[in-house]
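Tip: read the tokens left to right.
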């Protein structure tokens, strides 16, 4: 029977030390095994919608698992995957290939067929030749480097040092929390706060098991009470020089590192009050920096690279989907909320996430302020008369206008807003608020608005 190497973790069962491109198997994480998208868990692998169909057998290096689906037959080492057949005579030589694979850092598929009676010298020569040839292929992507601790991260004007991968994280802000989940790090999260929307559906079960310290602003005591060795914050006004939850100086005194999302501090002045003023336009590069930094901090850089690559592909696809907008002058306004339903609304400035969404899709944001969410009167917005009105949908209920249905009713019944062409034409888009903020879900916002533009026929 053929034996297939599936390149992912190979590790020391005794001390969980990482030897390969994936971390110790103490949490679920996505992977590709023999061309199948699977989930790596402490027990082995699971295909989508199924129980564990590959289970680990006891043993140290190399860890051996047994498969039961076509295309990946027989015993499998926890490496990756399937190129030219190489004849070997014993597991000893598979160990040799394991070492070769580690140093080559390859991302190829390898089928290994045990064949008795072959000369050991010729077998080793073929192994070396195959490894050297594969290493020279320009199309092969090298695996990410393991983090070298102590690690220094430049974050929001501060140098944050990590002596090891954090084990207990409190995450203040839904975007950072979901990034951690997407990186397969939910088991490291011991507390969350600052939620606008339900968590991504695939993480609902894991999220239910993690203490929610507050829907909005937790206390300093509740955060430190979780004994974190890292606190992440989505907004500086929660944790920063003058944070309402706690200042960076307070956490420093306790020896607790703080990581703030670059999207809230790079090219942004938060000393102006409110949600701050952007000196430079937001771009998804700031979200990608968060993903990269966190993946390095936790020594899962390969996962970060894959997540970033997938988001970039989605963004490009959405942009191409509405390429016709480049030749049209289609305008939009983004309504986040209002302190009172009939008060001036908080709408998106030109340099925040909605400004970025507009730029990607070729739309014109009618609000030209550099403030993140300035208040602008409806009479002013009506004079601009945008083609599309985007309203935020959220679970938060800090203000009455957090309710998207109240927003919708206001637009249709107010004497000023009801006369705007977007309202008359039914060009109102209800967007999840996380897609409208500088978050991991800004890509969702791009995709959702692109689909709405097409449905309205505004791309033709």
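Filled-in amino acids:
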């Amino acid at each position: 029977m053929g034996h297939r190497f599936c390149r992912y973790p190979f590790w020391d069962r005794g001390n969980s030390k990482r030897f390969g491109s994936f971390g110790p198997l103490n949490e679920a994480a996505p992977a590709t095994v023999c061309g199948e998208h699977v989930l790596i868990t402490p027990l082995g692998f699971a295909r989508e919608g199924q129980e564990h169909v590959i289970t680990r057998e006891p043993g140290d290096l190399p860890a051996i698992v047994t498969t039961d689906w076509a295309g990946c037959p027989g015993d499998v080492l926890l490496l990756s995957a399937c190129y030219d057949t190489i004849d070997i005579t014993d597991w000893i030589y598979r160990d040799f290939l394991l070492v070769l694979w580690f140093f080559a850092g390859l991302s190829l598929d390898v089928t290994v067929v045990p064949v008795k009676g072959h000369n050991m010298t010729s077998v080793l020569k073929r192994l070396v030749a195959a490894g050297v040839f594969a290493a020279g292929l320009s199309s092969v992507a090298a695996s990410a480097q393991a983090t070298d601790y102590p690690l220094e991260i430049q974050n929001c004007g501060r140098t944050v040092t990590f002596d090891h991968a954090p084990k207990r994280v409190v995450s203040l802000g839904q975007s950072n929390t979901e990034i951690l989940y997407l990186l397969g790090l939910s088991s490291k999260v011991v507390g969350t706060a600052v939620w606008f929307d339900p968590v991504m559906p695939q993480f609902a079960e894991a999220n239910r098991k993690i203490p929610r310290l507050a829907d909005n602003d937790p206390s300093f005591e509740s955060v430190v009470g979780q004994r974190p060795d890292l606190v992440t914050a989505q907004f500086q006004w929660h944790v920063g020089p003058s944070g309402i939850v706690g200042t960076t100086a307070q956490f420093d005194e306790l020896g607790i590192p703080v990581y703030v999302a670059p999207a809230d501090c790079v090219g942004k002045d938060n000393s102006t009050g409110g949600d701050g003023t952007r000196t430079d336009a937001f771009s998804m590069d700031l979200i990608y920096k968060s993903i990269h930094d966190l993946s390095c901090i936790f020594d899962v850089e390969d996962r970060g690279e894959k997540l970033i690559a997938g988001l970039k592909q989605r963004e490009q696809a959405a942009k191409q989907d509405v390429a016709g907008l480049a030749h049209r002058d289609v305008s939009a306004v983004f309504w986040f909320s209002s302190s009172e339903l009939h008060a001036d609304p908080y709408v998106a400035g030109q340099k925040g996430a909605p400004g970025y969404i507009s730029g990607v899709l070729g739309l014109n944001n009618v609000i030209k302020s550099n403030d993140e969410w300035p208040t602008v009167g409806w009479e002013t917005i009506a004079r601009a008369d945008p083609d599309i009105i985007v309203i935020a949908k959220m679970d938060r209920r800090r203000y009455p206008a957090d309710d998207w249905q109240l927003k919708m009713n206001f637009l249709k019944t107010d004497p000023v807003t009801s006369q705007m062409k977007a309202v008359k034409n039914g060009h109102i888009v209800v967007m999840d608020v996380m897609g409208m903020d500088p978050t991991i879900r800004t890509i969702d916002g791009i995709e959702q608005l692109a689909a709405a533009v097409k449905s309205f026929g505004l791309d033709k």
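The CA atoms of residues 52 and 135 lie 33 Å apart. The chain has 14 helices and 27 strands.
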